[in-house]
Amino acid sequence: MADTVTSLASHLHGILVADLSNPVAAAIPGQGAFANLARSVLGAPQGMDVAAGFRDVIARASVLGPDAAWLVAAGHSGLSGLAFKAQQTDAMLYHLDQAVTYGFNDCLALHSPPMRAFHQDPRFRASYQRIRITLADLDEVTWAHRELLLMSRDASRAAVDNVGRRDTGISPLPQAPLPTRVPDTPGVLITRVELSAAQTALQRAAIKAETGRASGNVSLSLVSDDWDHAGARRDAWRADELETHRQQAAAGRAFVERPGVSTLVIPCPPLGSLAYPAG
């Protein structure tokens, strides 16, 4: 089957999920808010060479024309992140520069705590100064990074809430809907697919933990003569109540465009002028 932008975007999504599933992952551009949580709750990637996957996306997207340039940028951004984790600064900066060339424009990611150490590097600064974005797109990028932090918080709270649950129900982790607006610059699609991958990875981790707890409770209820069935029902009711609250909160976090925000393509705000969302 011939590649399309849509099929390659789906392929990229799978690679990003595998990368987030690496328990030794460190914070990388665009995913710093999620990496520590991913490291603690997800298993190792199954048979996935993430670097080869990013290179494959670059090669296949390169022949699809301008509409796929953002996928080339995403592949280089991924390789830049892998080089960062391997402490290969030259490779990190090379792939970052290539990502910017093909449209990467998540300037907020480059203000994340792991990236601040590079702000005085002239190569980093040169790449950053070439980035272009609109204020409307920057609003979405900022929302996406904040949503990563909120997802991490919700997952941590849910894990605490589920300690000692005696019921056999499974509570998925509610998540905010992805934006559907047409971005002014295609680089925003990279941030969007990264957020989607984080949602997928976190949801899988939550379901895995919930399935293990529920299965254990099924076994205990079958072999124990004094299993607290009334307590299990109360736990189920409480879990349903908490899940409803989380669903409502996630729906309320949907991205909303500011009326009248500029769609003029401009350079990113100066290095050091953006505050990365606090955890």
Reconstruct the topology from this structure.
Blueprint: H1 5-20, H2 32-41, H3 50-62, H4 69-85, H5 89-101, H6 122-129, E1 132-133, H7 135-161, H8 188-223, H9 229-252, E2 266-267
Antiparallel strand pairs: 1-2
- Tertiary shape: elongated
Question: Over all CA atoms, what is the radius of gyration?
Answer: 21 Å
Q: Largest sheet, if any?
A: 2 strands, antiparallel
Poorly predicted residue ranges? 23-45
DSSP helix fraction? 55-70%
Structural class: mainly alpha
The string of secondary-structure elements, in order, is HHHHHHEHHHE
Strands side by side in the biggest sheet: 1-2
Beta-strand segment tally = 2
Count of alpha/pi helices: 9
Tell me the β content. under 5%
Cα distance spanning the termini: 43 Å
What number is the mean pLDDT?
88
Describe this structure in words.
The chain has 279 residues and is an all-alpha fold. Helix content is 59%, strand content 1%. It has 9 helices and 2 strands; from the N terminus they run H-H-H-H-H-H-E-H-H-H-E. The chain has helices at residues 5-20, 32-41, 50-62, 69-85, 89-101, 122-129, 135-161, 188-223, 229-252; strands at 132-133, 266-267. Strands 1-2 form a two-stranded antiparallel ribbon. Helix 3 runs antiparallel to helix 4 (69-85) and helix 4 (69-85) packs antiparallel against helix 5. The longest helix is centred in the C-terminal third of the chain and has 36 residues, at 188-223. It is elongated, with a radius of gyration of 21 Å.
